[in-house]
Structure prediction request, 211 residues.
Amino acid sequence: MGRPIVYGPAGSTYVWSARLALAEKGVAHELIDVEFGAHRAEPHLSRHPFAKVPAFEHDGFALYETQAILRYIDEGFASSPLQPTDLHQFARMNQIIGIVDAYAWPSIAAGIVFNRMLAPRLGLPVDEAAITAALPRARLCLSEFARLMGDDPFLAGERISLADLMVVPLLYYFSRVPEGEAPLAEHPGLQSWLRRMEQRQSFQVTKPPGL
Prediction:
């Protein structure tokens, strides 16, 4: 079997999640960078007609949408599973993944992190109104992540799951902007979880350069 290929910029939270899953499974892969803006043009549109990242390929099989990619990685490669077998924990994992897609990414990544971290690097104006508007939803996402995790060491139970791999890039970036400091400090358990995740080998080997 050939190495999987992940298409997209290393700094994308969703690209990072896919690479974290591959690293957790011990699967070597190739990252083909897609620069900001290039995702809206060929050849990337042939990989992802909705002009998003990541796109994924393995042994001639092409796939897009992060959730589908993560499940393919978990079910397609041996090693420790990244999806719980317990029904409640499995449902909790899927619930948290849904929160990421519907609420956390739009508020934390698009609303705050993009404006604080990426826009200045690209020479784009910082939308302070968008940051202010996104912060209440971002705080609510943190509260729910903390509540749903409870006293467990990971977000969906006693073992790492796809939920952790979807959330950690977002919270890592959020912890590095001024708006993230106070909200994260309100949830010590979530802060401890983030520190544990940062120490994992999968995090260290996939951490985007420059962070």
